[in-house]
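Checklist before submission:
- one chain only
- standard amino acids only
- sequence pasted in full

Submission:
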Amino acid sequence: MVEVLGHYSNHQRPANTVIELLDRASRGEIRLPRLETPAVNKTLERSGRLSQRQIDSLIERHQAGESARALAEEHGVHRETIRALLKRRGLASRPPRLIVLDETQSAEVRASFERLGSVRATARSLGRSERVVARTLDAFGRH
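Returned file contents:
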């Protein structure tokens, strides 16, 4: 059995392939991918996506009131990356803004809810989040 498997298996091939690839890469014929740990890829300071000056500016702008989401979109990174950067610098991220509706908007939410009968339908019809609609209805004891 071992002799049969030996004839149908090429144990040298994977090692040869690796050696061949390394040789070709050293001659510049191919480019091998860089191997980095995911944690290194995700950190802004180490990834090279942003310069130190950009990072400092980003932090100043966040402290001045700009959202992590807006900064992330501008720099082409995920908002959690911005939040992680702020956290590493010892800066707390601000909680999301709480949207509070005025009396006219609240009355519109209540009327729409009475007509449609569900938070989801009300939110969709008014272009509001379900969370805002539910919180508005809870404030009036309905929901």
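Reviewer check: Confidence is low (pLDDT under 50) at residues 1-7, 37-47.
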